[in-house]
Amino acid sequence: MIRPMRRINQALTSEQSQMILDQGSYGVLACLGDDDYPYAVPLNYVYFEGKLYMHSAKEGHKLASISKHNKVSFTVVGNDTVVSEKYTTVFTSVIAFGRASLATGEEHKKAFLALNDKYCADRPDKERMEAALNCNRAVIIAIEIEHLTGKQAKELIGALPGSDKS
Question: pTM for this one?
Answer without folding.
Answer: 0.89
